[in-house]
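Hi support team,

I've been running sequence recovery on a batch of backbones for a student project. Most finish fine, but this one hangs at about 90% for roughly twenty minutes before it completes. I'm not sure whether the input is malformed or the queue is just slow. I've pasted the structure tokens below so you can try to reproduce it. Let me know if you need the job ID as well.

Thanks,
M.K.
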């Protein structure tokens, strides 16, 4: 019995890469959005008729049914009765264009550029300990940020991911953290991406003047105008704009310790005495078994890492920050606000 179970487990591991690709196919066909528009589950033949009307192309209903059934077997979507498909709580996350969508994350991680990175994972084990390279850079000769600057198709996926995932994170922050009221005036979002997070903070706390600071190509092509937010282009490894407080969401886990220290040093220099840095990032427990791999994505895509609470304390203390507080965010598992002061 035990041998058979481990045999099945190995088979399932060997084909586990397939699920994100089936999800990608379903998203590219637009099926999660078609089902979301209907007030009742839809038969696969009707799904194909809707797809044909929208695209002018006939769709093979047997293939669509097999794709949908493969996801139903994993409890994504529901088939009830046979051939009739509807959403369930998992599949709703795949509806594209909503503030709570994982569609863009699946499209990004299953993109050809994203997948190519994983083929180079073993090469990182041959790098020296001070290396800051990623599997993505090994595959493409440049970092994911430089790649996004030069490849418009990938940039669309990247900014789509930042927008939808940014929504989920910032909503969790605004729900679970009460420290923005005390920001005197200027809050600088370092590596702010599209500017969505700081714009939501300014909306909730209108006394704050928001600055969204990111690389020139992000500011030029990934941002929109948000009331109360100024976009500033630059390089956080050179300097960051001065502010009363600094916000940094999902940035430091992209970098190894040496690089993260360089960013923190520039943040420290940009703050007044008593000024606060508000970091939103992962708190990693390497011994906790979870259904997600919390650490390897960083190694593959950016060359960064997730850090435990004591590693965060050490990192912040090394650049002069003190009074470090951790405020876990219940709405976004494993994420916390890490507050520290100059
Ligand atoms: C994972 S994204 C997080 C974006 C945003 N904070 C969010 O949570 O949606 C990391 C951001 O760091 C920015 N970044 C990378 N290198 C940078 C640099 N040298 N200076 C400023 N920003 C940088 C990237 O362009 C990207 O927007």
């Amino acid at each position: 019995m035990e041998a058979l179970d481990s045999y099945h487990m190995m088979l399932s591991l060997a084909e586990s890469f397939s699920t994100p690709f089936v999800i990608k196919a379903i998203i590219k066909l637009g099926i999660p959005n078609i089902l979301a528009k209907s007030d009742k589950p839809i038969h696969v033949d009707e799904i194909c008729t809707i797809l044909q009307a929208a695209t002018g192309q006939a769709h093979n209903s047997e293939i669509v049914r097999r794709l949908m059934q493969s996801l139903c077997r994993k409890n994504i979507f529901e088939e009830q009765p046979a051939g009739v498909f509807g959403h369930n709580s998992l599949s709703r996350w795949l509806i594209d264009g909503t503030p709570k969508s994982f569609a863009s994350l699946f499209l990004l991680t299953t993109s050809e550029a994203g997948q190519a990175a994983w083929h180079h994972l073993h090469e990182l084990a041959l790098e020296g300990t001070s290396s800051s390279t990623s599997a993505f850079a090994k595959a493409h000769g440049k970092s994911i940020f430089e790649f996004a600057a030069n490849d418009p198709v990938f940039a669309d996926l990247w900014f789509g991911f930042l927008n939808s995932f940014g929504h989920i994170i910032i909503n969790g922050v605004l729900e679970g953290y009460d420290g923005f009221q005390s920001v005197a005036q200027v809050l600088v979002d370092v590596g702010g991406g599209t500017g969505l997070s700081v714009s939501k903070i300014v909306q909730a706390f209108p006394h704050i003047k928001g600055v969204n600071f990111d690389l020139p190509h992000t500011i030029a092509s990934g941002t929109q105008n948000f009331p109360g937010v100024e976009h500033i282009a630059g390089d956080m490894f050179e300097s960051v704009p001065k502010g009363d407080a600094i916000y940094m969401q999902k940035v430091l886990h992209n970098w190894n310790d040496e690089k993260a220290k360089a960013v923190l040093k520039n943040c420290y220099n940009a703050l007044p005495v008593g000024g606060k840095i508000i970091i939103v990032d992962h708190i990693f427990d390497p011994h906790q078994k979870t259904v997600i791999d919390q650490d390897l994505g960083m190694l593959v895509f950016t060359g960064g890492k997730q850090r435990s609470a004591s590693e965060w304390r050490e990192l912040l203390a090394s650049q002069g920050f003190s009074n470090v507080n951790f405020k876990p965010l219940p709405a976004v598992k494993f994420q916390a606000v890490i507050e520290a002061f100059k």
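--
Follow-up from support: It reproduced on our side and the slowdown came from queue contention, not your input. The chain has a mean pLDDT of 94. No action needed from you.
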